[in-house]
Write a structure and sequence with these properties.
The chain contains 8 helices and 4 strands, in the order αααααααββαββ. Helix 1 (8-21) packs across helix 5 (62-79), helix 5 runs parallel beside helix 8 (149-161) and helix 7 (94-110) packs antiparallel against helix 8. By secondary structure, it is α+β, with helices and mostly antiparallel strands. The protein has a 4-stranded antiparallel β-sheet with strand order 1-2-4-3, with helices on one face. It has helices spanning 8-21, 26-29, 35-39, 45-55, 62-79, 83-90, 94-110, 149-161; strands at residues 117-123, 126-132, 166-172, 181-187. A hairpin with a 2-residue loop joins strand 1 (117-123) and strand 2 (126-132).
Length: 202
């Protein structure tokens, strides 16, 4: 049976964030997030989870690495769309842009591990994102703070790229003893989409 693989965007974003925030430790983490395997999309779940386990012991490094990685992953996810589609999406009404952000977030979450899934729902003030089996939150002892900031940073960045204002706030986290992670995106008044010189794709 082949080893479960982790999505290349997720691993690459974490690798880049590690290089940015704790460059003197990058050689150690490359024992698990091997550059050659990363480029080929062959990072297995055990190596990925081991790297996360060690990172949780790096003191204050966890939060900034996760925030940077989440935003980078969102940038790459958005960049995978064509230029015309990106321009079109930004011209849609705010409600449609929020739905698009949720769909892209679900796709990104599903690349974490084969078992990781996100369920999303619209609310009067924004949206709720439930994340089941977050690899970032697999801990033996309960954490005092949520550990799934990667997803919150990614969603905040997707919303920003789609010209939505607001932020994701934690409601519950698997690492804190909850059955799954829950984040609520609280919308601010919508941003008026910028005019684009390109027509929507047909």
């Amino acid at each position: 049976m082949s080893e479960a693989r982790i999505g290349r965007v997720v691993v690459a974003s974490i690798h880049q964030a590690l290089a940015d925030h704790i460059p003197l430790r990058i050689d150690f983490y490359e024992n698990y997030l091997r550059p050659m395997r990363l480029r080929e999309g062959r990072i297995g779940a055990p190596a990925f989870l081991a790297a996360l386990s060690f990172l949780r012991r790096e003191g204050d490094a966890w939060a900034p690495v996760m925030a940077k990685a989440g935003r980078s992953a969102a940038d790459w996810e958005f960049a995978n769309l064509s230029r015309l589609r990106r321009a079109w999406y930004r011209r849609l009404p705010a409600g449609w842009r929020l739905r698009l952000a949720l769909g892209m977030a679900r796709h990104l979450v599903a690349q974490s591990t084969p078992a990781t899934r996100a369920k999303t729902a619209l609310t009067n003030g924004g949206a709720v994102i439930d994340i089941h089996h977050s690899p970032f939150c697999e801990v033996r002892d309960a954490s005092a703070l949520p550990l799934c900031g990667f997803y919150a940073a990614a969603f905040d960045r997707l919303a920003e790229l789609l010209l939505l204002e607001g932020r994701a706030v934690p409601i519950g986290c698997q690492a804190m003893g909850k059955p799954f992670c829950r984040w609520e995106f609280q919308s601010a008044p919508p941003v008026t989409p910028a005019r684009a010189d390109v027509a929507p794709e047909q």
